[in-house]
Amino acid sequence: MNNSNSQNQRIAKMTFSSVYPMYLAKVEKKGRTKEELHQVLTWLTGFNNKKLNELMKENVTFETFFRQASINPNAHLITGIICGYRVEEIKDSLTQQVRYLDKLVDELAKGRKMEKILRSA
Predict the structure, then answer these.
(1) What are the residues facing 81 on neighbouring strands?
(2) What are the b/e assignments for 86-113, b being 16+ CB within 10 Å?
(3) What is the pTM of this model?
(4) Which domain holds residue 41?
(5) Which residues pair with 85 in a beta bridge?
(6) Which CATH number is 80's domain given?
(7) Does residue 119 lie in a domain region?
(8) Are 118 and 100 in contact (CB under 8 A)?
(9) Is the sign of the CA dihedral 96, 77, 16, 63 positive or negative?
(10) At the top level of its lineage, which domain of life is listed (predicted)?
(11) With contact defined as beta carbons under 8 Å apart, do 91 and 12 qualify?
């Protein structure tokens, strides 16, 4: 994916706390829970609920959010199309990590089993 630098910068400057309510609404609308969303977030980032709440309260950007994260070593197993791009082909690492999260939230909302969402090698 050859995303433009301006699009990558726009994604980097978005705050996690501004997007989180949309993630939550999306999964709850489809019958999933906040706890399941947090399980997915924890799997991808290594953050526990306390840390997620701190980061939202601090209004951190995605750039800061993912800089502090310990990305799951199996995140590379997340594949497929999100926002018209194949996540495994995204060149900018931050944009790819944000799209990993988007993809996981989509899978959760679509009713995919948690064992499939939380990939293991």
Answers:
(1) 86
(2) ebeebebebbbbbbbbbbbbbbbbeeee
(3) 0.91
(4) 5-111
(5) 82
(6) 1.10.8.290
(7) no
(8) no
(9) negative
(10) Bacteria
(11) no
For the chain, what is the HEC assignment? CCCCHHHHHHHHHCEHHHHHHHHHHHHHHCCCCHHHHHHHHHHHHCCCHHHHHHHHHCCCEHHHHHHHCCCCCCHHHCCCEECCEEHHHCCCHHHHHHHHHHHHHHHHHCCCCHHHHCCCC
In angstroms, rounded to a whole number, what is the distance separating the alpha carbons of residues 43 and 29? 22
Residue 82 β-bridge partners: 85
Q: What is the reported pLDDT for 121? A: 56
Pairwise CA distance, residues 76 & 119, whole Å = 9
Q: In the structure encoding, which two tokens stand for residue 117, read together?
A: 């969402």
Residue listed under structure tokens 């980097």? 12
Angle at the Cα of 120 from the Cα atoms of 108 and 103, rounded to 5 degrees: 30
Q: Structural domain tally of the chain? A: 1
Q: What is the pLDDT of residues 22-79, one digit of tens each?
A: 999 999 999 999 999 999 999 999 999 999 999 999 999 999 999 999 999 999 999 9
Q: Residues 81, 90: contact at Cβ < 8 Å?
A: no
